Give the backbone structure.
Amino acid sequence: MNGIANLGFQTHQPNQQKTQRFIPFSANTTGKCGRPVFIDAKLLPDFLINIDLKTYRGLQIVRGIEMLRSVGGGINAYQSKLKAAKHMSVIGELEIYYYIAQQNPSGNEVSGVYITELSNAAKNTAPAGNYIVKSGKANPNNLTQFSGDQACIGGAANLELAISDAREHIETDGWGRSPDYGLYFIPDSLQNIQGTWLTPEQKTVKISEHASELATILTTTQKNRLHTKSPIRIRVFNGGCKVLCVALKSIQGHLDKLGFELIDPDVSANSTLKEILAHDARLSPDAIQFTKKSTEITLSSVRNSLAKTLSALGNKKSAENILNKTSKQANALSVGNNLITNNNYFLDAARQASILGQWSKQ
């Protein structure tokens, strides 16, 4: 089957479990000028979350991706140490992962650039771990627990941004001042970048290690609050949901002195909710909160299962909120995926979904 003539085809990369369906990125990348540039059709939600097609910056990124037809794998691209054909190019604030294929004699894959992943560009950041935030400044917390009555678990490109995000979720006192609170910080690049592309410093710490440390903090906090009336309120945001889920799976016993709120979670929200309730931890009436349009896109693919879990847990308000918030986005993604199925260009499908979902990068 000729990949270009049919606009889309399937390929199975070595060491990968999922079959990927690659289609031409745009009408400018079909191979008429330079190498063809293909993109995995499953990246449509990630593309819409990270690129606002209505802005000049978004169009710059699109042009940069199209230019991979001539500069992909060149002197300014990162190259995998394990597989010479794998590369990463930084375009704007995004890292574009791809491999360059030569003509396959079997005809199952044509030569060209194949985009397999998009993620936010990594930035230098403070190390992950437990911090205590006082007057807007964070210091490492040497105690294996959260101090105070409020805490956050979350990540950002750097610690300063994580503090800024946490400030939006921490309740202030009567004078509008933020109390001291605990923050378990997770550099988001650790979760968004494939292991072979991590810097030497980042390679030393994995999600499982974050989860192990967080599990210790949660169990110690529970033990030290046994005689308190109200649970500590823990807001989970920006990538913290996945780490929390792994941490809870390793904990035995009750966590009834811990209360959780998931703010803009990823698709692991459903599993995380089940773990929270399995440990008898507390859940806010507004268990899942939306502050970003990207969350509506992300959760639209798991909206039904998430609503079912929340309903089963007696949190019908949050279940209805999930369905209402993601209705428009689910429909827009469905239309976009149908266009891809009918052999349209990826960029055309993205534009149509963006219009229907009224999306902009947030």
